[in-house]
């Protein structure tokens, strides 16, 4: 095997892991979630808009705020792969944390917006061959985007037990 053939393609590997978090594990491969986990988007379908709008424990961020924060962050990556030089430079992260929803329609639209942004980022990662454009800093950001989504999926599941995935089956 040549060194070129054995080199890990970072983008497609990250796309696989991100898709698992967003849509649930495909088939028998599960690296981040338990088998049968529905992933973030289908888990959010089980959260009512009133639960999404409610403050988190001890006055923390609502589920809607977590979702909007994720949507915003992923949109920055999509702008970056779309050719914008550095959309992170003037990012205003505080806006998403103030987000709430006031109806089922708003909650559905927010989930759809997150799904659209997440799948666009997954598609972009899948098509990246070789190293990431932008070198080590870009690679760290790409890896961080997967870990960051996983963190917020866990936070959402701590806020609302209805969004939790299945327990690990014994083997």
Notable characteristics:
171 residues, mainly alpha, Four Helix Bundle (Hemerythrin (Met), subunit A), 8 helices
Describe the fold and architecture:
By secondary structure, the protein is mainly alpha-helical. 59% of the residues lie in helices and 0% in strands. It has one domain (8-163): Up-down Bundle (Four Helix Bundle (Hemerythrin (Met), subunit A)). The chain contains eight helices and no strands. Helix 5 (63-81) packs parallel to helix 7 (104-126). The longest helix is centred in the last third of the chain and has 25 residues, at 135-159.
What is the CATH-assigned architecture?
A: Up-down Bundle
How many domains, as an integer? 1
Task: Assign the CATH class.
Answer: Mainly Alpha
Q: In angstroms, what is the radius of gyration? A: 17 Å
Percentage of β-strand residues: under 5%
Brief write-up:
The protein is mainly alpha-helical and 171 residues long.
Reconstruct the topology from this structure.
Elements (H helix, E strand, L loop, with lengths): L2 H4 L3 H14 L15 H7 L3 H5 L9 H19 L12 H4 L6 H23 L8 H25 L12
């Amino acid at each position: 095997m040549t060194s070129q053939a054995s080199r890990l393609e970072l983008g497609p590997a990250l796309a696989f892991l991100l898709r698992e978090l967003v849509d649930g594990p495909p088939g028998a491969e599960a690296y981040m979630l338990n088998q049968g986990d529905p992933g973030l988007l289908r888990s959010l379908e089980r959260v009512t808009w009133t639960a999404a709008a409610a403050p988190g424990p001890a006055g923390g961020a609502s589920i809607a705020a977590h979702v909007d924060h994720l949507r915003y962050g992923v949109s920055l990556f999509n702008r970056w792969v779309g050719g914008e030089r550095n959309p992170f430079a003037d990012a205003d992260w505080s806006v998403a944390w103030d987000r709430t929803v006031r109806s089922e329609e708003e909650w559905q639209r927010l989930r759809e917006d997150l799904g659209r942004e997440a799948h666009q980022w997954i598609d972009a990662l899948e098509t990246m061959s070789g190293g990431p454009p932008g070198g080590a800093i870009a690679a760290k950001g790409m890896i961080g985007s997967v870990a960051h989504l996983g963190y917020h999926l866990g936070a959402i599941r701590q806020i609302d037990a209805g969004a939790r995935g299945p327990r690990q089956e014994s083997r």
